[in-house]
């Protein structure tokens, strides 16, 4: 077992029941402290892969290991200690405030007894730090159900950050965020990688931005992982415009020389 590998996918395969369509086999791994951008056209299988890694859905074949342990062998609270997941959308019927939703991220790692008692949550200073970093402090006592789409998304991100899990799975985390909040969020993720050595797998559609933040890109198409490598290599690969069926232009960011793909 190699401890530097936070996530290992070993011939992972999946089919929807009653359908011949599915995913894989996919083999890949992510080293500690890496931000992997997961790209690919609509329907490529990105969200499905994230759900399989988070064990929300169960693979049919192969193995998924987090820090050397098979995800399917972990209890729900053991999984929550290792994986934080922000799905594309979440509708809640619960009448919770912003502060409570953020604290729930942390409580998901605790036993049900502690969760019922709201015990073992975040230290107050840590909670304040996360609320401030996600610019939610002024909203902290608002009912979650009254927030705008972008505000609600920031709360879900804050809740995942509060979980302080070594692997963070993000499904289109900045969808619904305005550019200012999107950049702040991506910078916050990079800061957490630097300070807390977390590892991130992030499905992302914006090809002009993903190469500015990711260390590695994985490209999915038709349920397969077809390409992986540095943003420089992947974003200049001739297969990318083909799989998106778009006339994309490859260029370097004028300030930092990081690779970007833009539309003509
Ligand atoms: N229950 C299901 N039965 C059959 N096919 C399904 C089922 N759920 C999802 N799919 C299909 O699986 C494929 C992969 O979906 P997935 O949501 O993983 O793609 P994605 O890459 O995340 O797409 P997007 O960029 O649009 O979010 C899609 O074609 C989708 O229609």
Total strands:
12
Q: How are strands sequenced across the largest beta sheet?
A: 6-7-8-3-9-10
Order of helices and strands: EEEHEEHEHHHHEHEHEEHHEE
- What small-molecule ligands were found? adenosine-5'-triphosphate
According to CATH, the homologous superfamily is P-loop containing nucleotide triphosphate hydrolases
Shape: globular
Helix percent reads 25-40%
Low-confidence stretches: none
Question: In the CATH hierarchy, what is the architecture at level 2?
Answer: 3-Layer(aba) Sandwich
Tally of alpha and pi helices: 10
Residue-averaged pLDDT, rounded? 86
- CATH class term: Alpha Beta
CA distance, first residue to last residue: 46 Å
The main β sheet shows up as: 6 strands, mixed
Helix- and strand-based class?
Answer: alpha/beta
Using the coordinates shown, work out and report the CATH topology.
Rossmann fold
Proportion of residues in extended strands: 25-35%
The Rg value, from CA coordinates, equals 18 Å
* Domain unit count: 1
Keywords: ATP-binding, Nucleotide-binding, Transport
Protein name: ABC transporter ATP-binding protein
InterPro entries: AAA+_ATPase (IPR003593), ABC_transporter-like_ATP-bd (IPR003439), ABC_transporter-like_CS (IPR017871), P-loop_NTPase (IPR027417)
GO molecular function: ATP binding; ATP hydrolysis activity
